[in-house]
Amino acid sequence: MNPRLLLDTHIAVRWLSFPGKLSREQTRVLDEAIRNGRRVGVSAISLLEMALLSEGEKRITAGLKDLFHQLDTNPAFGILPLTSEVAREVAALGSSLRDPADRVIVATARIYRLPLLTSDQRIIESGLVPVIE
Known about the structure:
Elements: E1 5-7, H1 9-17, H2 24-35, E2 40-43, H3 44-53, H4 64-73, E3 77-80, H5 84-92, H6 100-112, E4 116-117, H7 121-126, E5 131-132
Parallel strand pairs: 1-2, 1-4, 2-3, 4-5
Helix pairs in contact: 5-6
């Protein structure tokens, strides 16, 4: 699996459940990737975040079962694992990002040398990884 970019959790959820909430650039990048048969990566930690979102106040309207089904069956998606290499990269990032999931997502993007599609200002401002807003 050779993805061309990595999706932050909120981007994956929006794309699958609330596509109207994506920016024009995000929509363009995702549409172009799919049109050209390119895969997009989702960090394994995003699956945990989605599961936790389904419990809290920010419930995923489409339903967790449907969301995971789309991620499992849509050939456009590839789940990138949390490996020891990613964990070492998390440790190397320092404390510029406090959220553990954000740190894993950024480390995953760095290890796989992928731009990160995100709207998270903390990640964007950190400068730790190339981003597509």
